[in-house]
Amino acid sequence: MQTQTGGSTGDNIPLYAPCRKLSIGDPFRWLKMGWQDFKRAPWHSLAYGLIFVFFGWLLLYFAWAHENNALIVSLLFGFLIMGPVLCFGLYDVSHQLEKNHKPSFGHERKRVFHEMRHERLFAIMMSMLFVFLIIILSIMAAIEPVYGQKTGSYAVASLLIAMFFASLAFCASVFTLPMILHRDADGATAILTSINAVLRNTRVFALWAFVIFVLTAAGFATALIGLAFITPVLGYATWHAYRETIITKG
Length: 250
What we know:
By secondary structure, this protein is mainly α. It has one domain (about 25-245). It is about 80% helix and about 0% strand.
């Protein structure tokens, strides 16, 4: 498996961690490893999964109550944008299992607070991106009666915009929080590491993003109930993807 050296400044301070060259079949192995972690900690995993289901129901209720179709569309892509932030505890579960430790909510809570200084900026960035997406789609929904019937392009344009935002978020976030958890890295280094890994394994991560999108859509199609299982598996799989892709010490 090929490796690539990390970028550095003139003072030999690394800008990002190096990554390995991946194979196109790797995403399916990550899913298998994520499912194995789920089976090792089923009740712990379901507790996290049900949290996603509950807040998803809450957001859908507000969207339907206000008849806001833009918000409903945004929820699916918003999950892809905010998912890595919300999965931080799941990354720690896989990390604990990797060390043959029994997962505990106390340990995960400590890790969240310990890394809060790095997480906060990243979470704010992702939140702003999500809110910006909602605003744009809401504006487009408002002008749809004027232009949508004539051009027939509203749905396509909305989908393309949402995919663009989700792609930006995916590149910047796929390995950011796992690296912060694992190496106590600063936010900038972790984000650059994530972007570099995606750009150097474009086909593999395009497939991985598609798999995440399809499974997330399947979770939504089951009235969000499927997310109770899908979300933990994807969180664990992302941790294993990070461990196989990013070259770090330890």
